[in-house]
Amino acid sequence: MSTSKKFTIEDFENLENNKDLLELIKDKSDLYKKVQKTLLYTEELRLLQIELVKLQRWISKENKRVAIIFEGRDAAGKGGNIRRFMEHLNPRSSRLVALNKPTEVEKGQWYFQRYIKELPNPGEIVFFDRSWYNRAVVEPVMDFCTQKQYKEFLVQVPEFEHMMYEDGVIIIKFWLSISKEEQLKRFEERKENPLKRWKFSPVDKKGQTLWDKYTHYKAEMFSKTHTSYSPWMMIKTNDKQVARLEAIKHVISQFDYDGKEEAKTTLTPDPNVVMRYYRSNRNID
Fold this sequence. Notes:
α3 packs parallel to α12 (240-253) and α4 (78-86) packs across α12. The model has no long low-confidence stretch (mean pLDDT 91). The termini are far apart. The chain has a six-stranded mixed β-sheet, sandwiched between helices. The chain is globular and about 65 Å long. Helices cover 47% and strands 12% of the residues. The chain is built from twelve helices and six strands. The protein has 285 residues and is of the alpha/beta class. It has helices at 9-13, 18-25, 29-62, 78-86, 104-107, 113-116, 138-141, 147-166, 180-192, 202-205, 211-225, 240-253; strands at residues 65-72, 94-97, 124-129, 169-177, 232-236, 274-276.
């Protein structure tokens, strides 16, 4: 087939599987690579989600408490990652926490109080789409808190997480890392797509102009809250699909659950995509 030949309805009606589809478009190299990548991603995601179901069953049986935190700049892919994690999990023992801005009553409480209520119960996985770390980056960048409140938070959060660690709560902290250029591209897509327009907020609008300020507070957060018992894991997210697969692999790799040895795909994350925080002068964000 020449690259100029158009597809017909009959071409697609004769397809029996994904292999046939790839053969049909193979001569159109750009389209072939894109479709091949999507099909490989879809199959890999399916296999990893099977492992997540097995992991959840084990966590429920063993009464483990697991909190998975997703932090990062706006448009870094927090929601998309969480959706792929939760897509096939039992909603009775998994939850999404995405809190709105605090009420007047909550503003008068100890900062961590409203998050404590959301921590996992025995046998439960809780996914945080942003967490108490709002006070580490977003709030000081946007002047939503005082410097006194910010500094108190940085002193208290290692102790707060250490208490959870000693009580058996398993905390996995992800920072989704995105480049300034990719963030701008995703902002433009949100504005153009009516189904995503709700995601574009006034805070998002300032994400690009306040880029360096975000970088400063992000670096301070890492230096004060990256600990041996609650480390930060950084994920490169310019490629959304790769980031989702590698985030799932990292979580799976942290547990020795029943049936893990029967997995039909690699469960070890790529260290070029997922890595423990380290101080570097060459970070994409």
